[in-house]
Amino acid sequence: MRLALLGCGTVGGEVVRLLHEQSADLAARIGAPLEIAGIAVRRLGRDRGDLPVDPALFTTDALGLVKRDDVDVVVEVVGGIEPARGWLVEALRAGKSVVTANKALLAEDGGTLHDAAAEGGADLYYEAAVAGAIPLLRPLRESLHGDRITRVTGIVNGTTNFILSAMDATGAGFAEALEEATELGYAEADPTADVEGFDAAAKAAILASLAFHTRVSAADVHREGITEVTAADVASAKAMGCTIKLLCIAARGVDAAGRETVNVRVHPAMIPLTHPLASVGDAFNAVFVEAEAAGQLMFYGRGAGGAPTASAVLGDVVAVARNRLAGVRAASESAYADLPVRPMGEALTRYHVRLDVADRPGVLAAVAGVFARHDVSIATVRQGSADGSAGTTGRGGDAELVIVTHVAPDAALAATVAELRGLDIVRSVTSVLRVEGGF
Ligand code: NDP
Ligand code: HSE
């Protein structure tokens, strides 16, 4: 079985190492030895340490390598949309099996890859693209195919989970926690894709596509990052017995016409400390799946890093190599349901709203009236400081109100907050956070 490796960086280097160290076991599991036919990189002269591989295998001509007749399996660990898309479409159409960790490409244009796989009768596997080492996509696309998944809620970005966990543990603000994450090597020099939620949104699109048998792309995902989360928000969450996590949520729903829909979103949210995802700390990932017959399932582990990600890549390599030897193909993409994606405004959420108001008679009634006008039902109201003490904050006759709502459409909650911001009795709306997880 001859393998073309595209990319030899953090993940690709570990793929090479594991292929070398486990060659005998892998050959036994597959039923044939696995050999590297070539390795495509950007810089031939780059120092690759003591990588156990023949330097003559390296090339900068990735497309040429993909097209070679002696290549059976193409493993892509370069990343990005182009030129990766062109290489993979070429490989799939030619009937070569593809294993990729490229979540950005799958979320942007997974349909093109699946179409090319169908055209070429080839396998397309991508376990490493979501939540690194955690076996998650195979359970969604195989083990749970006899069930009906209703909701997937995940912590799928390690960098932001590290930052939020640090804020929760130490009371640090976002900037301070990001600095620590960068110093420890969790956050990249440019952390935008992580802290603004782009990475999690790509993973959310992939999860939703598999869970709901519907093509969902990154453009369908409502996305908010964690840059606006403050130390006061974290303290407020604690006062309520909650913690703040960047969640990816993919949920089935029904629209006003009674049609089944899906909603896919990424945003920070409070979850109760009793929720299984609340205890997922540091840079770990976890995904909580709810299915009609199976009930609740939780998948937990390392979502990034060279070796954990390479583990998932090699699991796929073994699967596609076995299929090739047996002359079979895995089940193709399942997108038959083709459910419409519901806009964020129609998503049902709960809100935690913290506001500073004038402390005088009638203010609470006026604030409650705004919620009522938008048909948003209030669950709890607390007056006092964020640390939970009773009474006013003592800032020149102002008080702090913390309001938690029942479930309502996101648009109604947003309109409520917008109207509150316009009231002269409301000094400022200091925090608005969604509340998830059955609090
Ligand atoms: P790196 O940046 O460490 O490695 C990228 C590799 O691709 C390098 O070897 C680079 O060559 C090569 N490369 C870049 N451009 C080209 C090109 N035009 N032609 C040929 N080779 C090229 O990335 P990672 O290993 O971290 O990530 C790879 C993929 O895995 C991405 O899709 C990422 O999203 C995904 N992934 C990564 C995880 C992680 O923890 N790192 C976790 C899960 C998924 P050179 O070495 O010469 O620079
Ligand atoms: N940047 C990602 C994270 C890497 O922090 O989880 C894994 O996709």
First and last CA, distance:
52 Å
Mean pLDDT: 95
Using the alpha-carbon principal axes, give the shape.
Answer: elongated
Q: List the domain count as a whole number.
A: 3
Helix content: 25-40%
Model regions low in confidence, pLDDT < 50 over at least 5 residues: 390-394
CATH domain class name of the largest domain: Alpha Beta
Number of strands: 17
Q: What is the CATH topology classification name of the largest domain?
A: Dihydrodipicolinate Reductase, domain 2
Distinct helical segment count? 14
Spell out the CATH superfamily of the largest domain: Dihydrodipicolinate Reductase, domain 2
Task: Sum up the structure in keywords.
6-stranded parallel β-sheet, 11-stranded mixed β-sheet, Alpha-Beta Plaits, 25% strand, HDH_cat, binds NADPH dihydro-nicotinamide-adenine-dinucleotide phosphate, Rossmann fold, Dihydrodipicolinate Reductase, domain 2, alpha/beta, binds L-homoserine, 439 residues
